Amino acid sequence: MEMSGGGATCLNCGATRIGEYCHVCGQSGHIHRTLGAWWHDFTHGVLHIEGAVWRTIGMLLRHPGALTRRYIDGERRRFLSPLALYLFSVFLLYIAYSLFGGFANVNAPSGNPRAQLVAEQTRIADLGQTLRQQRAAAAGAGRDTRALDARIAKLATDARELEDARKIVDRMPDASDGVNESIHTGWHTFDEKLNHAIEDPELLLFKMEANGYKFSWALIPLSMPFMWLLFAWRRGAHLFDHAVFVTYSMSFVSLLITAMILWSSALHLPGVALMMLLFPLHLFVQMRGAYGLGNGSAAVLTAAALVASLASLVIWVALLLLLGIAH
Question: What pTM value is reported for the model?
Answer without folding.
Answer: 0.65
